[in-house]
Amino acid sequence: MKHIASGVAAVKRAAAAMPLLRRIAIPLLARLRLPDVRVRHHWTGEDVWLDPFRHRGYWYYGAERERLCMSAFAALIRPGDTVIDVGAHIGYVAMYLARLAGPLGRMVALEPSPENLRYARRNVSALSNALLLPVAAAQTEGEAQFFVEDLSGQNCTLEPGLDLLGSNVKRAFVERVYRSVTVQTTTLDLLSERMGITPAFVKIDVEGAEWEVLQGMVRLLGGPAPTLMVEVSAHHSAIADLLEDHGYSLRDESLLPASPRDRGGNFFALSPSRGDSVSPRAVGLGR
Questions:
Q1: What is the pLDDT of residue 167?
Q2: I need a labelling partner for 255 at 20 to 30 A (CA). Which of 22, 59, 144, 184 fits?
């Protein structure tokens, strides 16, 4: 395994130096179907298991991947906090959230994709303050059709007909594939009530279904309201209205004032109890 990981690192270095090689290396990795590899988590130092092709963004971009967002997590999550990660993928961010919450805190991760769960269980389950649940957060509890893509596992969605792969397919030289599976759903209101927890921070990265997740946590939004990170890709104005109506202060990844009405992407919603007390200068303290 160490030799494979070293080989992947060598490909990354070479690809960074020669963009043309990346066009050759990425499709080659797709066809070779290499075994899973173990790499060092760029923010915690722990081992992370991943597929060298499907999850190549983690090793190719390293700590530069989502740096501002990861730094903002460090500015907003306090030791002892209870954190919920909605849409945990392979558990990379969940591992970091668990580290920020610390041994006196708790991190609950939700991930419904069967393929993603294979890695998330390996990466998250050993953490003493973490719990991984194989469910999707939604507006109601029950069952739903979940649309899974096999290119990276990061664009899976509850939204029928929503195709988020775009130009990634061409760059990876693979076919566009979505398939449907049945998954269990719950609401964050019900989950919190049943577990007896009051989350201080909730990360929502669910590829177009963020409005439904927010609708399923209206009691939590009513207070004591958690701080949120929401990747907004649909219902932009409705989400902005909902959060502002609950007293949230909306920020971008640098924690500067911003609104999803203007564009999509990652947004932080500072809870009414915290207000404007977090300075943009806090970003950059992630490690």
A1: 44
A2: 59
In this structure, the chain runs to a length of 287
Count of CA atoms in the C-beta half-sphere (13 A) of 2: 0
Residue-range domains of the chain with CATH: 2-62 (no CATH), 66-282 (3.40.50.150)
The contacts of residue 80 (CB under 8 Å, 6+ apart) are 101, 102, 104, 105
Q: How far apart are CA 183 and CA 175, in angstroms?
A: 24
Task: Give me 219's structure tokens.
Answer: 């009691």
Rounded to whole angstroms, the Cα distance separating 185 from 105 reads 25
Tell which residue, 50, 106, 43, 105, has the closest CA to residue 80.
Answer: 105
Are the CB atoms for 109 and 145 separated by under 8 Å?
A: no
| Angle ∠(121,127,133) on CA atoms, nearest 5 | 45
Residue 286: which pLDDT band, with cuts at 50, 70 and 90? very low
* Strand pairing category for 47-50 and 37-40: antiparallel
User: Could you tell me if 71 and 283 are in contact, meaning their C-beta atoms sit under 8 angstroms apart?
Assistant: yes
146 beta partners = 181
CB of 36 closer than 8 Å to CB of 51: yes
What is the three-class DSSP state of 229? strand
- Structure tokens given for 169: 């397919």
Please tell me what DSSP assigns to residue 173: T
